[in-house]
Amino acid sequence: MKHLLVGAIALIAMAGAASAEQMKMAVTTSFHNSGLAEVLLPEIQKDLDLEVQLLVVGTGQALKLGRAGDVDAILVHSRSSEEAFVAEGFAPHRREIMYNDFVLIGPEADPAGIAQAERATDALRQISDANAPFVSRGDDSGTHKKEMSLWMAAEVAPSGDWYREVGAGMGASLNTAAGMGAYILSDRASWLNFANKADEVLLFAGDPVLFNQYAYLPVNQDKHPHVQAALAAKLEEWLTSDRAKELINGYRLADQQLFTFNAK
Amino acid sequence: MSMFPIHARAITVRRRGRDLIGPLDLSLEGQGVTIVIGPNGAGKTTLLRALHGIERLSKGEITYASPRPEALAAQAFVFQSPVIMRRTVRENMAYPLSLRNMSKSEISSRVDEVAERVGLTFALNRPARVLSGGERQKLALGRALTLRPELLFLDEPCASLDGRATREIEDVLNHEISRGRRIIMSTHNMGQARRLAQDVLFIHKGQIHEAAPADQFFTAASTDAARAFLNGDIVE
Amino acid sequence: MGELWEGLAQAVRLLITFDSDLVEITLRSLAVTCTAVVIASAIALPLGAILAMRRFKYRRLTIAILNALMGLPPVVVGLIVYVIFSRSGPLGVLGLLFTPTVMVIAQVIIIVPLIASITQQALRELWSDYRDLLISLNTTIPQRLGTLLWDGRRALLTASLAGFGRAIGEVGAIMIVGGNIDNHTRVLTTAIALETGKGEFAMALGLGFILIALAIAVNIAIHTLSHTEQEGRW
């Protein structure tokens, strides 16, 4: 027992000392669920000899971790929050990296008939009119904020028995929607990677309003002197390089391109 | 340095608004066997515990001729229902010695010697919980004797034992008495009291009703209550 | 039902292939929780023993607080530890957030009340048995503590194992303070939460079964060890 314990403690210690340089980055669940991280991180390790430790959280918590100085950089997708973050001085700047898109998922039977909708806002209005069950992340994440802005644009105040806020991550929310046969707004990557689809299908996509811009924000060293600003800058340079462009645009899931590189 | 004489001055033990014993005065000299008798509930156990210093006094004080910690360390107490530790018989007997800085070999030889005397050598390596009632009381007595106490208290040690176990315990006690160990013991077995006593304390309603040398007490008790008690009458 | 079988099959598959990720997170789970149990026992066993034998003024209150803390949701403990060890928190300079060390700290806080409370209940009876003898022998408080802990070790083992069970299966607190970082702070329970989030129920269930098997194995191992040690004794 004692030997096992000592060995295991040694293992923990080693895990911490495996790489020469380490930094912590908070990313959104949707980014992590896309599987892109598993492609990019080993390449980053190879090219930069840098171990990027990912904290997979909602956008709200990611920004919080950045504010507290608990991570060195964040990669999120909620423009207005990001701009506020920069304005408050927690990041020196905001760098757009790539975008993917949101899609509307729902039961195959499509009781609200959103598959034929012209625009995303029309689709949401139809769901509300039909009182069809709709699962909302309700967790202040980027996806949730996107959903709220869409309801606003559709001029619908979502409330009532049909509107279910679950306060959970993308995967858990998709599980809930699948269980209830409800509509839900998801990023495409999470949806494609989601294994428990049940009767749910992709019903609506392609409206430009559904595009989902990811941006990289290094945490400001002036606010938190201990952050690894140099490493964060190195990572930013890599993420905006042609090498990253090739990997991001080339990433395929179920034969679909998920992300479009658009860093300038 | 001897702890005797022990003086108890106006000691009272009061619990939940009731005086269990006292106020009473008592002096104890350093030799002999004092047997404490009296009706149930008279306060025999409380008196013994108070003299041993494990019952908080509400009033009064007990003084020893030697410094208090030294005096307390030279006493041992055998309880009516023996405290059996969840260990082997050997470990039970060795426990009081293990609290003092004593070498393992010294502890071992003392335990062997005492186990022999109380007749538990055969059981030394058994768990104490498998012992019979008589063996448990012998274990408790043996454990007390390992300390070679100057003063040994026994609180009705044979209360629930059969004749044979009682005799074996008395044999051990007689051996100790012959070697000059000071004993203060309560009992409600009058035969035992007559067999062992050199002095008698008759306790009644929390007071020392009568204190006398044994032969004088058993032949000519001076108080009505003591005579009634000796006659086997109910004493209230 | 089909998913349960798939989960079982996945567990068997992971075990047979001796999946290196699985080995790593399993060892990390064990290391974090065993360390936490050792530290928590060192605190909680003497604390429980003192509560069992001392009659001090606020004893009842202390016991009530302990019992209440036993029901404290781990996620609250996690949040409090997070806030304390965050870079912006009072102990932020230590830089311990998102490390196995802080996961150990959170688990210690979670299981100390549990172990102390079980210890207190188990030793109360032992103390009432031993009280007269130990007082009569003029034992010091540390001697009493040592005697109670040693003679009650069987029950205390159970207390520590209860703490182990609670800690190894805990996810809320270590998710927050550990961050579930791959190769760094990911343990069995946070991996299960991650797989569930991805809808990979078979994988999540597989890991769950391995967690259950691990908990059972540790319990059996400890009980077997302690039994051989005391055979023919108490």
Automatic annotation (TrEMBL), chain A:
Residues 1-20 form the signal peptide. Keywords: Signal. Transmembrane segments: none annotated. It holds the Pfam family PBP_like_2. The keyword Signal applies. Coiled coil: none annotated. This is Substrate-binding domain-containing protein.
Automatic annotation (TrEMBL), chain C:
InterPro entries: ABC_perm_TupB-like, MetI-like, MetI-like_sf. It comes from Aliiroseovarius salicola. Keywords: Membrane, Transmembrane, Transmembrane helix. It is a multi-pass membrane protein. This is ABC transporter permease. SUPFAM superfamilies: MetI-like. NCBIfam families: ABC_perm1. PROSITE patterns: ABC_TM1. The chain crosses the membrane at residues 30-52, 64-85, 91-116, 155-181, 201-225. Its main location: membrane. Residues 26-222 form the ABC transmembrane type-1 domain. It is found in: Cell membrane. Coiled coil: none annotated. The keyword Transmembrane applies. The keyword Methyltransferase does not apply.
